[in-house]
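Section 3.1: Structural characterization of target chains.
Under the original work plan, the team committed to producing a structural model for every single-chain target entering the pipeline before any wet-lab resources were allocated. The record below documents one such target. The sequence was received from the expression subgroup and is listed exactly as submitted; it comprises 324 residues.
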Amino acid sequence: MVIRHRSLSSRKFKPLMALAAVSVCASCGSPIDSLPVQEESLKPLKRYDVIQALGWNGEVMVGGSQAGAVVVSADGGKRWRRENLVGASVMGLAACPDGGFVGIDFNHKVWSGDRQGQAWRSAELDKPRVPLAVTCDGRGRWWVVGSGARIAVSGDRGVSWTVTDLQEDVQFTTVQFVDDRHGFVLGEFGYVVVTDDGGESWRKLSQIPGEFYPYAALFLDRNEGFASGIAGQMLHTVDGGRTWSRMANPSGAALYRLFLHEGRPYGVGAGGVIARLEEGQWRSVPYPDAVPAFLGSAASVAGGIVIGGPGGLRVVAITPGAGA
């Protein structure tokens, strides 16, 4: 079936949920005791940061924190600076064709910054009520998906939104355009929704069996793509999402982000695992001092991968592996 959009303007609303607050000690009074606190306040990355999103425009990288900020690097992740976004909890980021960035906030906002990762502004987002994924298409339009099986697009930087409503009680968790016409949205219960007219209309395909819940998806073109799910499930399609086959995942980890590094599919996820596609299987990539916590974000840079999760960001050098 084909569902076409309806239009609406951005407007204010109450937040649906709030994240847990970070406890701060208020009883440290002496200059000696307060010095570590002062030093911590000057660091761009805080102990309480959870980096769950990374955007990279080829020159500047932006990491989204749940603690009211983004962090920005202009040297491939070696050094970072902090940009405070009051009240924000940034959990999705994308780079746009003009080099600027767009991000989604659990608190029902969309944030945008320039190509240097500066001049951040917010725009209200009414639907989807809970935004879960964001991308920027080849025309620079912002696409947001999330709760209520809704797909929102803005061509004027969030001033107004057009929403496609599939009228289902389903969360959409991934969105990607592979060219000017072809886009893919995946959601819980194995939902697959596609467009072949640049988002003018969206068509629901057959659901992936087994009530599949996609953490992430990566399409290489209009036909081939991968999806990761609960308990390390990995799926593969070669017909544009019409059918899916299961893949071996010797890493054993649920992969929360899928991305390309030097032309090869990679993923990061539970237990600090970095995995890549080798000979049709998702195998762990060993790296020094492996992170013991989950990895919620990653981005490819020259010679390595920037990984993010609880407590900050790190650049990991990657060596070539077996053929894909």
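The chain has a mean pLDDT of 88.
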